[in-house]
Each structure stands twice: as C-alpha cells, then as structure tokens.
Specification:
Blueprint (H helix, E strand, L loop, with lengths): L1 E3 L9 E3 L5 H16 L12 E5 L3 H13 L2 E2 L1 E5 L2 H8 L13 E5 L7 H9 L9 E5 L4 H9 L4 E4 L4 H12 L4 E2 L2
Parallel strand pairs: 3-5, 3-6, 6-7, 7-8
Antiparallel strand pairs: 1-2, 4-9
Helix pairs in contact: 2-6, 3-4
Length: about 180
C-alpha cells in the first residue's frame, strides 16, 4: 500500500507501508509527529480561518503573506490575482466551485480586469457575500479612495507602508479580530 504524506508535513515523501490500514498508519504517524516533531495531529483543534488575498503583484503578495506569519496570525491565505478571479472565488464559480468561503478578504484597489472598488461594490450588493469583512490595502493614500472604500463597507483601509515592520503592525491591527493569534 502506498500512502502519500504530502498534506501532513511541509516535507513531501511517500512511504511503502505493510498491510496496515490507513487509519492505523495515521495513528502511528500522529505519534511520530508528537514525539519527534512536537506537532499535534489532534482533530479536535478549531479550524484555521481562511483569508482571501486579492493582489496582482507577486512581491506584494509575498510580503503580505510574510506579514501575516510574522504577526502571529493563524490563517490559511489563498491568493487570486485580479478582481474577476476574486468574484469567481467568492461565488464558487468555474475553477473555484469547491472553494471554501473565506472568513476575511484583503483587497487591493489597483487590480486588472475589475478594480478593487468595483469588486467591493459587487460584494456588498450580493446577499450571500455582503457580510464578508473586507480590508482594503493599497498604495493609494487619496482621501477619495478611502472614503469610497469605507462607504462601500470596508472594515479597514491600509496604505501600503514603506517598512515591513509597519506592515506587520497594520496587518495585525486590521486582521487580528477576525484571525486568531497563534499561541
């Protein structure tokens, strides 16, 4: 029997297993993780919240994901690169048909295909999405952009800062009440 451990550890490996059931091997693997890696495989832990990050720039997306980690926030961060993909993800359309509904969305304003303010407007006009907390993050410090974002129901507005430490602080302040802080 082959049992792929890809989803259970950050390392990817495949083991050839004798005639034990997958459930028995999972139990043995859980014991190994606790005793040798200090990782709990408990199934009673609360589910980790999912955050949808809508950002077209790879560098900015990497910095945001790093800031979430450095802020000690527990979240699965899923990224899409434009406004059209964001709406498809939220509506579970096309390739996102089996996607989980995020507990929080972090939305850039300057996006290809459909801009962030239009995405935010469409979310607020959709009964199934209108209660989703949305944090806007943008290079724009224009007061008009901030006012429109808040008028459309943005929870926070972050102007992308000039230092990583400031980004960590802003992400923790804006996302911390929705995402749990890791212990």
């Amino acid at each position: 029997m082959r049992f792929n451990m890809l989803r259970l550890l950050p390392l990817s490996f495949t083991l050839e297993l004798p005639s034990h059931t997958p459930r028995e091997w999972y139990g043995l693997y859980a014991i190994f993780c606790v005793t040798h890696l200090g990782v709990s495989m408990s199934t009673t832990a609360a589910p980790v919240p999912m955050l949808l990050h809508v950002e077209d720039e790879d560098g900015a997306a990497f910095l945001f994901r790093s800031a979430v980690r450095e802020a000690g926030l527990a979240a699965i961060v899923y990224r899409v690169s434009n406004g059209e993909e964001a709406l498809a993800f939220l509506r579970r359309a096309g390739p996102y048909a089996s996607a989980e509904r995020p507990q929080l969305m972090v939305l850039d304003l300057n996006l290809p295909k459909i801009d962030g303010l239009t995405v935010l407007s469409r979310i607020r006009n959709d009964d199934s999405l209108k209660n989703l907390p949305v944090i806007v993050i943008s290079t724009s410090a224009r007061q008009a952009d901030k006012e429109k974002a808040f008028l459309l129901g943005a929870k926070h507005y972050i102007v992308k800062p000039d230092s990583f430490d400031k980004l960590i602080e802003q992400v923790k302040a804006a996302c911390g009440d929705v995402l749990a802080v890791k212990k």
